[in-house]
Structure formats: structure tokens, C-alpha cells
Design goal:
With 531 residues, this protein is of the alpha+beta class. Helix 2 packs antiparallel against helix 3.
Length: 531
């Protein structure tokens, strides 16, 4: 009973104060927001009110703490319905929409007038055709009048066509703008909610008359994903070689939580709170098979990396959770300065970190994958944290090259980043042989031989070196063996585990070099060839 009396005294003893956002931790599908305010103590107690909080916040995640020797006794929340919250951005958008609708009405009126004039011109054209037909029967037809009238009608028709084309183009532009503004108005209206949360924090002040109170809560509707910029410039006037690289780690942050994050410290986390705390339990593994007559089948599979599914990312105004591949290690990234992220669902790009280092570029040709020679940069991840899967924008010597996908890269792990095509070096791959030799009288093994020729042509004015990459099959079965034949061009290195075969090819100016690859697959005679 004494405790109840103290709580009632605390909750009614002091006025309310609204708190400002201090910190936001953004997860892949939600955010934890921390607000701060000052308590005004009276009689050793205070109640701090945090108003206009998002209606969608999770009440179970409300946590309060104090500083300066004070104690947060507890929190209580309620939902309140307010009048429509005024929003200057929404008013400006509605004004733009009204102006566009006025312009569209004028365009429609001009088009109606143009169509009416066109109909009048068509009527005159029909009338004039009849007059010419009658005049042609006379002995002395006035052809000069015909010519003058026809020119006037043609000029009138051309003018109507140009006017109609211009009006149609203007109408399409205005309708596109109207659609975009209407979508933004719909988004703002959806979040211009009249329902808000109000949270009261009860504080026991102790000896502190004005302790700081922090309130944290978790709210849905927020996400982030990484995006990178990579800049490289080779030293001197060389085509490839040692140069300076700059890696900028950035983040695209979106939120439609119901509140603006103004001048807040943003922390990005790869933790996945949606997974819960239940320990994983492996499921049952079922092994099945099927019989294909009395023969086994050799199947060759190829990973086509260029056809991997690309991520389109969340649409504007529709914030959905992002898939963050953190390699099983959760970590956080703190933005170097405070930023503001508005409650509009739009992606905000913010820089997180920047690293400058030395890197080396080289020319790489893999004709089985690409018909072009690429310039790539070799380096190690310079950041003390992993680089997550994301989009990377590439700049070479200050020029934008394009974008590529970055795979998960651990700290210090080697990286290879494409710097675009080198059009001065050409590559061509031609099949030379595909021969199936059946088992002989003395052996039960049959052989499948393949042969390819790769031609590299240097059309630049300087000597170059190209790393030529080919592949050979990798056998995962003891009964099947793969051999690279001696008639292949020498000087290669072979990684049998990955099935990669590389040549370092030096080309002089305007020189063409050929490299041949021959390999044989040996397998039992009872096997058949599958695709």
C-alpha cells in the first residue's frame, strides 16, 4: 500500500517534458530508438512524459534509465488520438499537385481547341476538293488559286500536327510528375497518423534535482544495407601496376517508423533480432535415389555466375527488411557524425568509413566467361570489420566505370575488383577437338578428350601482361580421372582443387599470342555421358 502511494505521488507531482532522439540502432528489419530528457524533481520524485512517439512501437521493449544517482522506477504507455499532425512537406506537395492539375486542365483545353480547329480545316479541305473538281471542268481553270489554297491548307495541317505533338508531350510529362507527387502524398498521408503513443517514466530523484532520463524502445519499419564506392588510379602513365585505391563504406538507410530521426547518432547493426533466442535444432536428412537402368551417368554442371539473381532493393515508401550476410558474426558500425533520416521511406546514403591503401591492377582474360579482357585491382580488405554483400560503384582514374556486386569479405581477406574492360586487348576462344574414344580390347576405360585454343591480341601501343584463366573439370568420384595433356601450351599453373588453369602471357605491341589447352576425362566403360 505504501508503494502504491509513492507511485501515485511520483506520477502526479511534476509536469511533462518531451524528449529528443539521442541514438538509433538500425537492424535489418527494425530499429531501437533512444530518447533523452531532463526530469524536474519535486519532493524527490518526478514524472517525465515522452509524447508523439510512434504508434507502432513495441510496448514490451520500453526501457528507462537515469543518471546522476536517480532511479527509474517504471514506465507506462497509452495511445492517444490527436488532430491531424501538420506537415509542411505534405502541404508543399499538395500545392505542387494543385499547380500540376491546373496546368493539365489548360493542356486539355488547348488540345480540345486544336482538335476543333483541325476539324474545321478538314471541312474546308473537303469543300475545296469539291470546288477544284468543279473548276477542272471549266475551259480555263485557275491553277494558281489551287496551288495557293493547297499550300495554305498544308501549312495549317502541319501547324496542327506540331501543336498536337507538343501538347501530347507536355501532357505526358505533367502526368508523370502528378503520379510521382501523388505517390509521395499518399505515403505522407499514411504516416501523418493521428494516433501516437505517450510514455510516462516515473523517477526517484535522490539528491539530484534534474537527472537525465533515457527512454528506449523498438519500432518496426526501418532497414539498412551496405553500398560501396571504390576508386583506383594507377601510378605514372602505366596501363596497369601499383596504384592508390580508396574504399568508401556507405549505408542506405530507410525508415517509415512514424517519426523523424533528426540530428541523431546512428548505429548500424547486423544482428538479427527476428531470429529470437531459441537454439537451432537440425532437421532430418532424407537420402533418396533412382535407378537409371544398369548404367551410371556422368553429369557435368557449370555454375553460371553472370546469371545470379540481382537484388532490386526496397521500393521508395515501402520499407522492408534487408538480407544482411554477416558471415555468422554480428557487429555494429557507428556513423562518424550525427545525421537526420526522415520518416518518408526514401533511401538515404550516408558514409560510414573510408580507407586509402596501395593496390595493384592487372589484365585478366577468362574467355569461357567473357569475350573481353578486364582490368582488375588486387588488394586486401583494409577495414577491421567484414564487408557485407552489397553494390559497389567503380571509378578508375576519376571516371565512373559502372557497378558490380561485392561478395562477403572478411578483414584482411584478398579482394579482386573489376575496373572495367580493356578494349585494346582482344581475346578469342576456339574449340579444337572433342573426341570420344571407347574402351579397347585391353582396357575397360573410355576417354573423352577436349581441346581449345585461345588467341590474345594486343592492339595497344605498349607491351602488356595478361593473366589468362581457363578451367578443367574437377572429378569428385574416384572412378573418374581428369588429366591435362602434355600438348597443352607450357608455362601454366594448375589449381586442381578448383579446376583453374592460368597462364601469365606477355604481349608485345601489336602481337598475337596463342595458348592451347587439351584435357582428357577417363571413366569406366559402363558409364554414359549426360548433360
Amino acid at each position: 500500500m505504501r508503494t502504491l502511494f509513492i507511485l501515485l505521488t511520483i506520477c502526479t507531482s511534476t509536469p511533462a517534458f518531451a524528449g529528443s532522439i539521442e541514438k538509433v540502432i538500425v537492424f535489418s528489419d527494425r530499429a531501437e530508438v533512444t530518447r533523452t530528457s531532463r526530469a524536474k524533481c519535486s519532493g524527490g520524485t518526478a514524472s517525465v512524459r515522452f509524447t508523439n512517439l510512434p504508434a507502432g512501437l513495441n510496448d514490451r521493449t520500453l526501457r528507462a534509465e537515469t543518471s546522476g544517482g536517480a532511479t527509474a522506477i517504471g514506465t507506462s504507455s497509452q495511445t492517444e488520438t490527436l488532430d491531424a499532425v501538420p506537415d509542411a512537406r505534405l502541404a508543399a506537395l499538395r500545392e505542387q499537385l494543385a499547380n500540376l492539375e491546373g496546368q493539365l486542365r489548360q493542356v486539355h483545353a488547348d488540345r480540345a481547341m486544336s482538335q476543333e480547329r483541325q476539324a474545321t480545316a478538314d471541312a474546308y479541305r473537303s469543300y475545296f476538293a469539291g470546288v477544284i473538281k468543279e473548276d477542272m471542268r471549266s475551259k480555263n481553270p485557275d491553277t494558281k488559286v489551287w496551288t495557293k489554297a493547297m499550300k495554305a491548307l498544308r501549312s495549317e495541317a502541319d501547324g496542327h500536327l506540331k501543336a498536337a505533338s507538343s501538347l501530347s508531350r507536355t501532357q505526358r510529362q505533367l502526368e508523370r510528375k502528378k503520379k510521382a507527387i501523388t505517390l509521395r502524398i499518399g505515403h505522407f498521408s499514411a504516416h501523418n497518423s493521428r494516433t501516437v503513443k505517450i510514455v510516462d517514466v516515473s523517477v526517484k530523484c535522490g539528491s539530484n534535482s534534474s537527472p537525465r532520463v533515457r527512454l528506449s524502445y523498438v519500432v518496426p519499419g526501418a532497414t539498412w544495407r551496405p553500398e560501396y564506392d571504390f576508386r583506383f588510379k594507377v601510378g605514372g602513365r602505366n596501363k596497369t601496376g601499383l596504384g592508390t585505391a580508396s574504399l568508401t563504406v556507405g549505408a542506405l538507410i530507410q525508415q517509415s517508423t512514424g517519426e523523424d530521426w533528426d540530428d541523431a547518432q546512428i548505429v548500424l547493426s547486423t544482428a538479427k533480432p527476428q531470429l529470437g533466442s531459441t537454439a537451432p535444432m537440425p532437421g532430418k536428412i532424407m537420402v533418396t535415389g533412382r535407378k537409371d537402368g544398369d548404367k551410371r551417368t556422368l553429369v557435368q554442371a557449370t555454375e553460371k555466375r553472370e546469371k545470379l539473381k540481382k537484388s532490386s532493393g526496397p521500393k521508395v515508401g515501402q520499407v522492408s527488411g534487408a538480407e544482411l550476410d554477416d558471415g555468422g558474426q554480428s557487429f555494429v558500425l557507428r556513423l562518424p557524425r550525427k545525421v537526420s533520416i526522415k520518416n518518408d521511406g526514401r533511401p538515404y546514403w550516408v558514409p560510414v568509413d573510408r580507407r586509402t591503401l596501395k593496390a595493384r591492377s592487372k589484365l585478366v582474360a577468362s574467355p569461357l566467361v567473357s569475350a573481353y579482357v578486364h582490368q582488375v585491382a588486387e588488394l586486401e580488405n583494409p577495414a577491421p570489420y567484414p564487408l557485407l554483400v552489397g553494390k559497389m560503384h567503380i571509378y578508375r582514374a576519376g571516371t565512373y566505370i559502372g557497378e558490380t556486386a561485392l561478395n562477403y569479405t572478411a578483414p584482411g581477406e584478398p579482394m579482386e575488383i573489376s575496373l572495367g574492360l580493356d578494349e585494346e586487348v582482344r581475346v578469342k576462344r576456339t574449340p579444337l577437338k572433342k573426341l570420344n574414344r571407347s574402351a579397347s580390347f585391353l582396357s575397360s576405360i573410355k576417354h573423352i578428350e577436349h581441346g581449345y585454343r585461345v588467341e590474345l591480341e594486343n592492339r595497344s601501343g605498349v607491351p602488356v601482361k595478361v593473366e589468362l584463366r581457363e578451367r578443367v573439370p574437377v572429378s569428385k568420384i574416384e572412378d573418374v580421372r581428369v588429366d591435362v595433356l602434355k600438348k597443352s601450351s607450357p608455362g601454366y599453373s594448375l589449381d586442381r582443387h578448383r579446376g583453374l588453369l592460368n597462364w601469365e602471357v606477355a604481349l608485345k605491341r601489336n602481337e598475337t599470342v596463342k595458348r592451347d589447352l587439351f584435357f582428357t576425362i577417363h571413366l569406366p566403360d559402363g558409364w554414359k555421358i549426360g548433360r
